[in-house]
Amino acid sequence: MKKKLTRDTELRQEGEILGAAEAQSADPFGHIDTFAHVGTFAHVDTWVFDLDNTLYPPDCDLWPRIDQRITQFMIALFGLDGMSARALQKYYYQHYGTTLRGLIEDHDVSAAEFLTYVHDIDRSSLAPDLPLAAAIAALPGRKLILTNGSRDHALLTAEALGLGTSFEEIFDIMDAELIPKPELRTYQRFFDKHGVDPMTAAMFEDIERNLVVPHQRGMKTVLIVPKPGQADHREPFEIPDTLALPHIDFVTSDLGGFLADVIAARSLSA
Q: Is 0.90 surpassed by the pTM of this model?
């Protein structure tokens, strides 16, 4: 029996669903939710999720805690004052993709030491996201995490969110041989290691530049953005002036709601 949908869901699915370019014209600030037509995701059997600011709300204090720990690491490493350490930190992040990559390239810093230190944070502000957990569990096929952070950080964070059993595997920065997204070779290592066919996969991510290669390889791409009025912890250069970008297929500020609509649409067509 086909699942009966709410009128709200039916309206969101009516006709051709807005893509990123249409969504941008509807809201020039990019704070929108677009919901996927069944035809868009019907072929997807592998669901790939970024971790930070994607699986937990963008206004959560988790990323600022990590960001502060990175600054503290650099203060201790170089003996710099806070402002100078932070300026260097952001320079490395913008030019190398991660601060860690810059520190390794220029100073041969221990990756294990860095990752252990910066992810040693209090996660008590996280609460289980039961609707998101239910939506991810209901997705047909494989569910994977692809993160520029560490495996331990991903495991602990997923557990705090009630997502501890939601994912088949985690591909972290060590699996990427310390080469972060958005590098092509990192995605290729991910595809090869886990046998992912990008033509039947979807990627969920909060940084738009990290969706360029996935889109080029054939993945459906979904950009996660804050709700109107929510704090946005992305760096200024990470926030696009427009969402009318060819590598962004959909935009949402409600990951759980977006996935629920994908599942409902697939159920309706079954």
A: no
